[in-house]
Amino acid sequence: LEKYSSNKHQHYYCIRISLHPYHLYYSEFQQKRSTYKPSTSKNSSALRSHPDQFVYTALKKIESEEWKDKVEGINMIVQIAETSPQALTNDLHAIIVALLSECKNLRSSVSRVAIASLGHLFSALNTKMDNEIEKVCLVLLQKAGDVSNAFIRKDATGSLDDMVKNATASKVLTALIASGLKSKNNAIRTECAASVNRLLDRVGPKVALRSKDSGKLIEVLYTFAKDPHPSVRYYGKFGLQMLNQVYSLLPLSNGAETLEFLNCTVLTILMVVVFRCLTLFVKFRWEQRLEGLKRFEEMVMRNARIVASDTKVLDAFVGRLNDINAKVALEAMETYLAILYSASKYLFFSTEPNMKALLSQIITALMSHLPSRSEEHRRLAKECISESIKRIDNSALAAAVAAATKQSNVKQRPFMLRSMSINASLYRTKPHLIEVVSLPILWGNVRSPTQMNCDPEVKRAMKEYAQVLSKCIGKNALLEQANAFLSPVQKRYLEMLI
């Protein structure tokens, strides 16, 4: 700060600024990442003539404790990559390890240079970076998700873009999936989804569908399209739309090439259709929900295994079984009957916990139509429940029917109690399951309020249900177990029933 005066009464102050060479070097970083160029070394001619010697020097400088030496060493690596990339191949692993270590440097001036240098290495070495791509991608995605520093985030995004443009496409996809697909950081998943879209744009949707990684690509995009974060969903949906448009424009000729293409990509295209059904199921207009049900039926008939892999679509379909619109609900029950035979092998595994929960939702949704004023609704609901008992493994279905029976009202309970007749066929193989699932329903019905037991239909259904359990377990064994759950009066009522 220097003081000078134009006269003895007025004083002016002038600030003299001296810029450090480091600040001059980083002035270009304040602009777009892609415009960054490393500073030119004074020994550039010697570097071009003897690059191997300078690789060792650069690594030594990067290991130095001084941040200026680190920056200079990274600059040398970038210059060698641009002038003599073949000189880096022998020591590439050591170089990458050193640069990745500096990407985590607490001094942002060093970490930004290291991050940018990785992008230059991808541009210069292309597919030679494939062996190191997973480690590099992991660090770059972590830096791209750094919300505390916008400049580091921009540099990391630029280097990821260089990786997507220059490395082998299949290696890039594998690295992105491993590093960012299951991350809990929204920014990391967003950048991962954006990078997958850039990769798809680089390869081309048509080539991507013909590649051996098409199934992996579709699955990743579909996962992104269901992500809870809106930015990730946007990129997932955008990628699926690109693939869908290309598929719809393909000529459907009888040539062997087209048939081979269709056979290779049928699973991936079905996943696109699954996504389309999911969006139609939740539309506001009932006509669109009807259209979704029709597509869902066609898709299940073609490949039920793909549908079984996505519980969100199944949950959305179950929601249509008791849709607020009567036409949609009727169409959903008819669709359920149509797909029940082909889908029961894949949709309702007795060993899958999520499928057991889905069965409970289905039976509860169908049971809601039993007290309906519409005869058609009641008939279809009863038919759906009866066919489910025939087609689906009863050991998986028993708990779902029992849970729905406990929640039933006076109009629903008679049919639900008669549906519990599956106990008779199942008791021989799984007696313990029947005792655990069915006996609590019997005790609950005997202890029910007077208005429930006074209904003649409920009374007849209770009597039939009690007699079925009495035949399975034995009258004396049943009454003996009743001692722990029923009062003497209730036990005498049970004796009258059986």
From TrEMBL:
Q: What Pfam families does the record point to?
A: CLASP_N
Query: Which SMART domains does this entry report, sorted A to Z?
Result: TOG
Tell me the GO molecular function terms. Answer: microtubule binding
Recorded GO cellular component terms are: cilium; cytoplasmic microtubule
Looking at the record, the residues that make up the TOG domain are 46-256
GO annotation terms (biological process): microtubule cytoskeleton organization
InterPro entries documented for this protein: ARM-like (IPR011989), ARM-type_fold (IPR016024), CLASP_N_dom (IPR024395), TOG (IPR034085)
Q: Which domain of life is it from?
A: Eukaryota
Name it. TOG domain-containing protein
Per the UniProt entry, what species is this protein from, by scientific name?
A: Syphacia muris
